[in-house]
Specification:
Elements (H helix, E strand, L loop, with lengths): L4 E5 L10 H10 L4 E4 L4 H4 L9 H13 L2 E5 L7 H6 L6 E2 L2 E2 L13 H18 L5 E5 L12 H14 L4 H8 L23 H27 L7 E6 L2 E2 L3 E3 L6 H4 L5 E5 L11 H14 L3 E6 L13 H11 L2 E6 L25 H20 L8 E4 L2 H9 L2 E2 L5 E2 L1 H14 L5 E3 L11 E4 L7 H12 L3 E5 L21 H4 L1 E2 L3 E2 L5 E4 L11 E5 L2 E2 L3 E7 L7 E8 L2 E6 L1 E2 L2 H15 L12 E7 L5 E7 L5 E4 L4 E4 L5 E3 L3 E4 L4 E6 L1
Parallel strand pairs: 1-2, 1-12, 2-3, 3-6, 6-7, 7-10, 10-11, 11-12, 13-16, 13-17, 17-18, 18-26
Antiparallel strand pairs: 4-5, 8-9, 14-15, 19-23, 20-22, 21-24, 22-27, 24-25, 25-26, 28-29, 29-34, 30-33, 31-32, 31-34
Helix pairs in contact: 1-3, 8-13, 11-12, 14-17
Length: 670
């Protein structure tokens, strides 16, 4: 697309009365140039088996075509109609909790033959009907797709076949690799394979989760291929990935391998929901955007984000605008709200849209009017923002699963998940105004980066570790944390010195770990008097050539290193044996980034003023200065001469930039 997309999800089917003409007029006033339709309304589109009704779809397409508003059509497969479950009860997913009961969305077995038959039929009927409409610019396949815990008989039969193929038919090889002899779980015939829902074996359990993630990849690739049979060359296929949910988007999604699924998409898309009001930091916006941009190393679409959303998310004045441009600062080419109007019935009645239940103009809508018209005016300067980040974080679904089975356990009050460690690192970089990419363990382009970070990379194949070692030896800077390189891709713990293969690279080894009680840190980065504590978990590190950067302060654990630094080949490797405060982490990162010659984006001393940048489609450097606070803030204009895009004013090096509360400035180099 040659324009920024600013849009909403729109459901004519949900309206209590006909107001399509009024809605279109309000959208035009707000500069909205995109709506997404159809993904939630299978039962309206196909009210009975084989009976199709395109009334609402045609109404919306006609109206949007006349208004010059683009449309993304969603395949409606994530919420099945009641008649399907009544005809074929086996479409319901069987999970650890048993067979599901009809009602909610995302309750079906995505491998079920009846479900797939009806899905293919409705997709083909829908595509035949809409593919030639001029306003339709692309298609979203399904919606926030996951495997929904599906573990019924057919899924388990397929899993057994998958394991047979993985181990080339040798059940004893599986026993050895997965440690199945524990508690008499060993199998000596594939026909004896038990119900995997009851397994206590972490290797088998994690492998089943990997298999389930593969089902999602297969399902979405199948849908993308179906849509691809009909779509025009000027239309795209996308999907709205979501993230681990902690009452808002938080971390790497456990049930989908986004790197694998994104291969079938033209454009990677995502749904980002985040705290607002006094809790608005921009971290979730940046994290979700950076992860999605990294999937295809290209611009991405935010296909859902909140306008008003939950009661606690109604934005303060200025925040909706700050949030919208924060998405663009990450490289998004589209910002779309879920949804246009608030719904008057059912489950999400109080997840409010841009308009409230009275459909009247409100403060949030008024701000959307400002945003949409600013995007229209400045879009050519903000479109297709490209980044060349030199730091990368390696993230892994396998490590996430492994640390779900074997959590990073501290005292009874303390437990950390994989995503806690990822966000510990990411949030520190974010607050320091250092932008980064994400890479998967399969990445072959590590040499594109100066710094590679491994947060709790617990399960990792040897070939990945060899690439990481080579990256460091050839001059890269490596930062690894506790619980890295501990087990292989099958969650079988490596039986040599930890961390496996990287022990020489980091210049350390350890074979004991515990949780820290009254254990502090001292060394190059902090003194004993500062009382910087080791948190949650600690490894008892012995150095083998590495320099001790921080050691434990404790009567017994004081003999061990907590943080080390080692020269390896042309590169450097730093290892963190425990968690500690974000303040100390940033101090360590600042030192390391300086050595790597990775510089924070200019002009800010750090959070709450966040600076994000890149080059626009004209090749000009652009910096977003984002104030995530309720107070005025100051920043400094970077070297050179710049145009502030909102005001058109010229800004020069060293000039003070005044940022109003919950506001932003955008500089483009002259």
């Amino acid at each position: 697309m040659d324009e920024l997309l600013y849009g909403v999800a729109y459901y004519d089917e949900y309206m209590p009365y006909d107001r399509l003409e009024k809605d279109v007029a309000m959208m035009k006033k707000a500069g909205i140039n995109l709506v997404r339709i159809a993904e939630s309304t299978w039962s309206t589109l196909e009210p009975q088996d084989g009976v199709f009704d395109f009334y609402h779809i045609d109404r919306v397409l006609d109206a949007m075509e006349e208004a010059g508003i683009h449309v993304i059509v969603g395949t409606p497969t994530y919420a099945i109609p009641a008649w399907m479950e009544k005809k074929h009860p086996d479409v319901m997913a069987v999970t650890k909790q048993g067979r599901g009961i009809y009602g909610a969305r995302q309750i079906m077995d995505i491998t079920n033959r009846h479900y797939l038959f009806y899905s293919e039929r409705v997709i083909r009927k829908l595509m035949e009907h809409v593919k030639d409409r001029a306003c339709v610019i692309g298609y979203q396949i399904d919606n926030e797709t996951k495997y929904y815990g599906t573990a019924g008989e057919r899924v388990q039969e397929a899993f057994t076949a998958y394991l047979k193929d993985k181990f080339r038919g040798d059940v004893e090889a599986m026993n050895r690799e997965f440690g199945m002899n524990y508690w008499s779980n060993a199998l000596h015939s594939w026909e004896d394979f038990p119900d995997v829902r009851g397994t206590i074996n972490g290797s088998l359990g994690c492998e089943f989760e990997k298999f389930q993630r593969g089902l999602v990849t297969e399902f979405l690739s199948w849908q993308a291929a179906l849509v691809g049979e009909y779509k025009r060359e000027d239309q795209f296929v996308t999907q709205n990935f979501d993230f681990e949910w902690r009452n808002h988007s938080f971390g790497v999604q456990p049930e989908v391998n986004h790197f694998h699924v994104s291969k079938c998409l033209d454009v990677a898309g995502c749904d980002i929901y985040h705290p607002t009001q006094s809790k608005l930091t921009g971290k979730e916006i940046a994290f979700g955007g950076d992860l999605t941009r990294s999937l295809k190393q290209d611009n991405y679409y935010v296909l859902e984000t909140e306008a008003q959303g939950f009661t606690q998310w109604v934005p303060y004045d200025g925040q909706l605008r700050l949030q919208a441009f924060s998405h663009l600062a990450g490289g998004a080419d589209c910002v779309e709200y879920w949804h246009w109007h608030s719904i008057h019935n059912s489950f999400e009645t109080y997840w409010r849209g841009l308009l409230s239940h009275d459909f009247a103009e409100n403060k949030t809508y008024g701000e959307a009017v400002v945003i949409g018209n600013e995007m229209k005016r400045l879009g050519s300067h903000l479109l297709h923002l490209k980044k060349e980040n030199k730091a990368a974080i390696m993230v892994s679904n396998e490590a996430l699963s492994g640390l779900k089975w074997f959590p990073i356990q501290g005292s009874l009050e303390q437990k950390k998940s994989y995503n806690d460690v990822v966000r510990w690192i990411y949030d520190a970089l974010y607050e320091m105004n250092v932008e980064c990419d994400f890479v998967s363990p399969e990445a072959e382009n590590l040499e594109d980066y100066k710094m590679l970070i491994l947060p709790a990379l617990y399960c990792v194949p040897e070939e990945t570790l060899v690439r990481i070692r080579r990256f460091t030896e050839n001059g890269g800077c490596l930062l690894g944390t506790f619980k890295t390189a501990y087990a292989n891709e099958n969650v079988k713990v490596y039986h040599d010195s930890q961390p496996h293969i990287l022990s020489e690279c980091f210049g350390i080894l350890y074979n004991q770990f515990t949780y820290p009680e009254d254990t502090y840190l001292e060394g190059r980065l902090c003194s004993r008097e500062e009382k910087e504590g080791a948190e949650v978990f600690m490894e008892c590190i012995q150095t083998k050539g590495a320099e001790t950067v921080l050691r434990y302060v404790h009567d017994n654990w004081g003999q061990y290193a907590a943080v080390t630094e080692n020269t390896f080949g042309k590169g450097k490797a730093v290892y963190l044996g425990c968690m500690f405060s974000p303040k100390l982490l940033k101090k360590l990162l600042e030192e390391l980034l300086k050595d790597c010659q990775i510089h924070p984006n200019p002009g800010s001393c750090g959070f709450p003023v966040i600076v994000r940048g890149g080059r626009n489609q004209m090749g000009k450097q652009v910096y977003y200065f984002l104030n995530y606070s309720g107070e005025k803030q100051e920043a400094a204009c970077p070297e050179g001469t710049w145009t502030e895009l909102f005001s058109g004013e010229t800004k020069r090096a060293g000039e003070t930039l005044l940022l109003q509360k919950w506001n932003l400035l955008i500089l483009e180099e002259q």
